[in-house]
Amino acid sequence: MFTGLIEEVGKVKSVIKNSDGMRLVVSCRKVLDGTVLGDSISVNGVCLTVVDMDKESASFDVSQETIKRSNFSFLKTGDYVNLERSLTPQSRLGGHIVQGHVDTTGSIVSKTSLGSHTNFKISFSPEYKNLVIEKGSIAIDGISLTVNYINENIIDLNIIPHTLENTNLKYRKVGDVVNIEFDILGKYVAKMIGKWYDKDEKLKNLLENW
C-alpha cells in the first residue's frame, strides 16, 4: 500500500522483454534506503517486487497482465518513472490510499501553464467515468492528485510547482500515456450499488434522479 506521494524520480536503465513479461531495471538511490529483496516499490503507480538490486538500481519482474493494464508496454531506456516505497506503520498518510493496482491507462490531451501552476487534462475510457468525482482522489502514474473537474471521460488536474518538479509530470507531454488507479473506496461503492441497483426500485429511482 502507498500514499501517492512520490519519493524519487528514477530513470529506466533497461527493459528486457521475455516470454513471461519483462525484466525492468531502474536507476535510483533514495528508495533503496532500507529496501531489501522482496520489498514492494511503486513504479509509475504499479506495485512491483524488488527481485535484484545494487547501490544504484533495482530490478523488477513484470507480468503480462501488468503490461496489458499499464503503460509499461511503452517504457524504454531513458524514460523517467515515479518511485515510492510501501507504507510502514509509522508513515503519514499524506495522499490517499493507493494500492499500486492500476485499473487502466489514460492519455494527456492538454498541458497548460497557469502562472506557476500547470493544468493537465487527461482522457480515459468512458466505462470508468462513474469512478471519478469532482474534488475526489485519483492516482496518475502513482501520484496522488485531486480531480478539479470532470467532463464525461476527461479529468482536469491542477499541478502545483512542487509536484511538477518532483515527479515525472515535468517530462510528460500531450499524447503521453499514463497509468490510472481510481480511488479504492469509490470502486467498492460502485460495485455495491451495481449489485443492488436492479433489485431495489427505490435505489434505482434515487440514483436516476440524482
From TrEMBL:
Chain ranges of the Lumazine-binding domain: 1-96, 97-193
Lumazine-binding repeats: 1-96, 97-193
Described purpose of this protein according to its UniProt entry: Catalyzes the dismutation of two molecules of 6,7-dimethyl-8-ribityllumazine, resulting in the formation of riboflavin and 5-amino-6-(D-ribitylamino)uracil.
Keywords for the protein's UniProt record, in alphabetical order: Repeat, Riboflavin biosynthesis, Transferase
Protein name: Riboflavin synthase
UniProt xrefs under PROSITE patterns: LUMAZINE_BIND (PS51177)
Domain of life from the UniProt record: Bacteria
Positions in coiled-coil regions: none
GO molecular function, one term: riboflavin synthase activity
SUBUNIT field: Homotrimer.
Pathway where this protein functions: Cofactor biosynthesis; riboflavin biosynthesis; riboflavin from 2-hydroxy-3-oxobutyl phosphate and 5-amino-6-(D-ribitylamino)uracil: step 2/2
Swiss-Prot/TrEMBL GO biological process terms: riboflavin biosynthetic process
EC number of the protein: 2.5.1.9
Catalytic activity: 2 6,7-dimethyl-8-(1-D-ribityl)lumazine + H(+) = 5-amino-6-(D-ribitylamino)uracil + riboflavin
